[in-house]
Specification:
Largest sheet: 12 strands, mixed
Structural class: alpha/beta
Distance between the termini: 57 Å
Shape: globular
Number of strands: 21
Helix content: 25-40%
Mean pLDDT: 90
Number of helices: 18
Length: about 500
């Protein structure tokens, strides 16, 4: 008996609500904004900015400034110290630890009860609902789901708890969900990555796993560990009913071929998700095409700043243009008000609104006017691997600036899984693919007027993991900064390579 057929009907009502996005997106988002303002009107932040007097998006944009983490940090720190009703009216006991800002090693994103239930958990449920509609033959609920998350620990202020978002989600999940997921909560929340890796493998090898959820790079480490432990060549031999991987956090493009080699099932599905510490934003709703549907009724109001423009140019969902890149700004049921995410997205369509992640506002290279974004780099890596038979495990890149004796170039530090061609051939093809994907890079490379061909430094096995370990970021949702306009990160990692 396949219980998935019975459970599928539970999602019918929710799917009909999602289908309304195409025709009523503006109405849904305006209602979301007014609901957020109404709920938080008596908070300290709501009183300061007179939420009671705001009745439209226009007055909202005119009266509340766009904020980075630094602007909201004093409010967040007070909340972490135990004060409440500062940014959000209900008590906030959990904070998702995220990568830091210029001035801080880490950011601590408030996670309210509302954001847990109506955003993060609902977003996860929506992923399953949309996937089941795409795959009518699914046996999703016939086995277990393996979720690979991070760790949880007491926060620096001592009044609440913080950790990776995934750990907070596992810690607070409905007990009924624990019946269909592995590993146990005790194992899932372990902080020491190597011990956790072995414990997950040991506890799941003999289980019937049908679905995976997590970051591609870390799952790749787990899969290889399981194959080594079992002596198998393919994950399908370990978990024959595995059918879907919900992935996010980093681009899947550089890892796709490796997964196809390690999971031989031709019916295996890969679903992209956009789930950050700040909220669950989007999910791939059509397995035949790239791009993710923005989930616009989960308690988040979205704004978009055209790339290269100032805050004053922010526009709501109903004013974006397809084909353009924007920085995303959110107002959330976690108490983030007009908060700059730091992520850039490309609008693929507007009715309904579908996006792809194009990069980070700080993770790009524009040292010579080339405006190289992360999505360019990921696509170029994937194309080059397909052309050469190579596989890339990890990488980071930064500019090498012009001197009196040399032109500028990009320097890539790459950890290869396989490299069947000379490094010079891989570099040439990568450089060509970047030119084909980015006209600004192509222009700067024309006759090497402003940029020389990129340089690749092969990385020793494990140095990226070593760097993450030394920065207490090994495992979970942590990832290597792919592109950086400065050289401090690549110089740090290069020291591990010497």
């Amino acid at each position: 008996m396949n219980p998935t057929k019975l459970i599928r009907s539970i999602f019918a009502k929710r799917l009909s609500q999602i289908d309304r996005y195409a025709d009523y997106g503006d109405i849904i988002q305006q209602k979301t904004l007014l609901d957020l303002l109404q709920k938080a009107k008596n908070t300290e932040f709501g009183t300061k900015f007179k939420f009671n007097d705001i009745s439209s998006y226009k007055s909202f944009a005119e009266n509340i400034p766009i904020n980075g983490y630094e602007e909201l940090k004093p409010y967040i720190e007070r909340t972490m110290s135990g004060e409440q009703n500062i940014l959000w009216p209900t008590p906030i006991r959990h904070f998702a630890k995220s990568s830091g800002t210029t001035n801080d090693k880490s950011k601590f994103i408030p996670v309210s009860a509302e954001s847990l239930r109506y955003c993060h958990y609902q977003g996860g449920s929506d992923c399953v609902a949309l996937y089941l509609r795409e795959n009518p033959q699914s046996r999703f609920f016939s086995g277990k789901g393996l979720i690979l998350g991070g760790s949880r620990a007491q926060n620096p202020f001592g009044k609440a708890y913080c950790g990776d978002l995934s750990a907070i989600l596992i810690q607070n999940i409905n007990p009924l969900i624990n019946l269909i997921r592995v590993p146990s909560k005790k194992i899932a929340l372990m902080s020491e990555w190597d011990t956790k890796l072995e414990a997950i493998a040991e506890s799941t090898i003999d289980r019937d796993i049908t679905n995976l959820s997590g970051v591609p790079s870390w799952f790749l480490v787990l899969i290889k560990h399981i194959l080594k432990k079992t002596g198998r060549q393919n994950l399908t031999e370990v978990w024959p009913n595995l059918e879907v991987f919900f992935h996010g956090g980093i681009s899947f493009a550089p890892y796709r071929e490796q997964y196809r080699e390690l999971i031989s099932n031709p019916d295996m599905h890969y679903v992209e998700t956009y789930n950050a510490s700040e909220g669950f934003f989007a999910v791939q709703n059509d397995l035949s095409v790239a791009g993710m549907l923005l989930l616009i009724d989960l308690g988040i109001f979205y704004e978009f700043i055209p790339l290269g423009k100032s805050n004053e140019h922010a526009v709501p969902l109903w004013e974006v243009e397809a084909g353009r890149n924007y920085e995303m700004v959110i107002t959330s049921n976690g108490g983030l008000w007009r908060y700059r995410m730091g992520d850039t997205v490309k609008i693929l369509s507007t009715n309904p609104l579908k996006i792809s992640i194009s990069g980070r506002t700080k993770h790009y290279i524009n040292a010579f006017g080339e405006e190289l974004m992360v999505d360019n780099a990921e696509q170029a890596i994937a194309r080059t691997c397909a052309q050469t038979g190579a596989s890339v495990l990890n990488y980071t890149a930064a500019p090498v600036y012009m001197t009196d004796h040399s032109k500028g170039r990009h320097q890539w530090l790459i950890e290869f899984g396989e490299l069947p061609v000379p490094i010079e051939i891989f570099a040439e093809k990568l450089d060509t693919n970047l030119q084909n994907l980015n006209s600004d890079y192509e222009a700067k490379r024309f006759k090497s007027i402003a940029l020389e061909c990129l340089e690749i430094i092969p990385a020793k096995t494990g140095i990226f993991d070593a760097w993450l370990r030394d920065h207490n970021k090994l495992g979970g949702q942590h990832k290597i900064p792919r592109l950086y306009n400065r050289r401090d990160i690549i110089e740090e990692i290069l020291r591990y390579n010497r």
